[in-house]
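Weekly structure sync, notes
Attendees: PL (lead), two postdocs, one rotation student
Agenda item 3: pending single-chain targets
PL asked that the sequence for the first pending target be pasted directly into the notes so everyone works from the same version. It is reproduced below exactly as submitted, 454 residues in total.
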Amino acid sequence: MKRLSQMSKLKESIKELYQDAKDLIRNTSAEIYIMAALGLAVATTTSYKLEQKRTHLIPLGFSEISQIERDAKRAHETLGPLTQLLAFANDGTMKVFECSNDSHDKFLETEYQRRFARELDMRMEPTYKVHHYNLNDILEKLPSLSAQSLTALKDFVAVQNRLNHVNDMFNRSWDDSHYDHYRTEIYWDTETYTDSNGNLQSRSVMKTRQVYDHTTHTYKYHKEIGEEASRSLDQLIADYPELNLRERLRTASQTNAEGEYASEKSRIRKKKDEPLDQEDFLGIASRWATGSTLMTNLPGTKANLTALHTYSDLWRASKNTSKNHRYDTYSSYDSGPKEFQVAETTLKHGTSLYNLISEVTGGINYVRTQAPILDDRIRDLVAVTFDGKKGNPKRLTNEILSISKNMYKYNFKNGFDVNRFRGEMVLLWGLIGGLSGALVGYGIDKLGNYLRNN
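Predicted structure, written out during the meeting:
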């Protein structure tokens, strides 16, 4: 989309805003500034500390993969690669988060990185193995499971790759530009000034300003590209009329005491809250499936592909009547000729479909490439902390947590909130503190003026 516009209106607005700001600063007393700054500082500092404290407890939810394997064996079924990949990716990141949770101590916070390295070592070292799958077992499995999962999603991957060309053709089939026209308007404004005797006077002054008049809309159609857009979309739909997930994600039929304890311990609950029951624990244990990016995006993927069926027919007819257009309206916004709208809507559905699929495949590819790196960083942190290897423990700790959080976030779009620090809350409370301080300063200023005058 191309947009041509004049800068005069924007410059005039900036000039007026600048003048208003100067007047406000000049007329505001020092008490208001001081109290506003104090309120901002106190609120921001307090909120930042509270948000930092939130990062010390990441909610956990293990998949109960061993139970899932037993359930599948009893049903004489083999677990598919997607079930294994997502369950293991969930559990691998959860083990890292559990290590972080267990390493925070309000009295020994300076020892966090050392405790974190110790907890990770216990979950990596086969000697300390207490679960069927240790963290190192999971990280070793993830790259091959990622490759198998992409093979299981080969139709989705093919549609994603083909959409690159389809979307590019629809994007280039039309060029549109919208040029705003302005006219000079004369108006009278009242100004105040001080005369030679020091008295405040007012006078009318003639001024000019730029006022919006109309917009010229231009739409240029590229016939050859439009024809290719139609052919490539028709062929894509013919080859892949629908996208279905051939594997059912199996979740655990029951949870065990250790997983339940980890889930409950990692969640801040109020005294009035009901204790978690079996239904709650099953919901937590199955969030890796229900909250996965794969299952979250699947309905939208199907809906957008269905929409492309409809719009491929509409565009096949619209391309035959598409032509260049140029006209004026008294609004900057214009939806364009109907043929242009069909192309734009087709592009919108194609782009949405591409993005939904790429979120799924992107998350899987992230696991494939980053799992070995995560394994290396964990081993580096342990070696630096306990074996005298040269390195930066803080940097390694941050990198381990960053990779783990990204791995979880990309693959479990509607999973648990693992990015606990909320920067927007710090900004919000800072704004509230600053405004509250300004109000207090305003009150102090008014009280001072009253006392001086009386």
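Discussion points:
- Confidence is low (pLDDT under 50) at residues 1-6.
- The longest strand covers residues 200-221.
Action: rotation student to compare against the earlier draft before next sync.
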